[in-house]
Amino acid sequence: MRVEGLELLDFRNYEQAVVELGEGPTLVMGRNAQGKTSLLEAVFCLSGLPSPRGPDQSLVRRGAERALLHGRVRRGERSVELDLEIREGKRRALINKTPVRSARSLTEVMVAVFFGPDELSLIKGSPEGRRRFLDELVVELRPGRGSLRREWDRVLRQKNALLRSAPRRGSEKTLKTLDVWDEALIKAGATLTGARLECLALLLPAARKRYGEIASEGRLDLSYQSAWLPQEVGDQAVSSGGVEESELRCHLELAISQARPRELERGTTLAGPQRDDVSVGVSSSQGRAVMDARTFGSQGEQRTAALALKAGEFDMVTEAMGEQPILLLDDVFSELDPLRRRWLGEAVAGMDQTIVTSAEPGAVEALGATAVLEVVDGSVRRV
Hints:
Layout: E1 2-11, E2 14-20, E3 24-29, H1 36-45, E4 67-75, E5 78-87, E6 90-95, E7 98-99, E8 112-115, H2 121-124, H3 127-141, H4 147-165, H5 172-215, E9 219-225, H6 231-240, H7 245-266, E10 277-283, E11 291-292, H8 293-296, H9 299-321, E12 326-330, H10 338-348, E13 353-358, H11 363-367, E14 371-376, E15 379-382
Parallel strand pairs: 3-13, 3-14, 8-12, 12-13
Antiparallel strand pairs: 1-2, 1-4, 4-5, 5-6, 6-7, 9-10, 10-11, 14-15
Helix pairs in contact: 3-5, 4-5, 5-6, 5-7, 5-9
């Protein structure tokens, strides 16, 4: 899988640009604030997922009404044209000039894995970032599951709106309506959690293998953390590859039932996957105890863990699709020591298509780039 051609119109600081891309590693160079990262961001947005850098309104060039992206994607012997129109609060997509129901349908044609300096937040950041990472991975592996998170968010908003307007003790009418929304919440929450656990079970061995390669020693662990799901159930699901949805429903139903008095008191939903997290644990050498990377990991261990998660994502998607996704690496060389730079250069050498931004001297040699592009103030030229 690779992007052969990319056109940008009114995207970020690009008024108009046409870029031809080839196989293997491509290095994108230029000074800061010229548009290097925006080029990677455009490729990622063509995969149908939200930008890893900000909301859609920030993607439209100042003074323009919309941003347009066009890509020509090669899948085996097949060439597919993708178009994406981005307006504030709305996306519209075409596949081979035919409108599709949702922009996320583009994921069925093209998948990209993005890694940049901000990905360290996967380890150091809030639980929301790790939930989003897992939910996007669900869609990358099975594009048909793109509605799971949207359905959960919809039901959660409706229930919270009801709780905010309900009297603290709850009238008979309010309680009956809550029963209806709780039933929908249990169904949507159990389905979403089951998909998350299935993905985490696939991610763990892939990320653990990559962590060992990057760090040369040590171990990485991942576990699903939830206030409503017993820890042993989550651990068993991750180690065995999944859990029956009926079991998840039972646990969530019990938690919601027990939380109702407090939810009426506080006016918000207190039980459910909207509060769950993924715990990342690391050990510096074999035989040493695994510790929480966010709290006790060194900067190097945290960066290695984040890189291992994204490399594990790449491997998972490759296994699921039978071909490699497009790898997008934003300014990673500046954040890595020589050992990890060498590992990264060797790792991308055999990949179908990798696009890397850098302003670092020696990046061409470290990457073994087959093509070099220079970006200057929103214009791109081949060097």
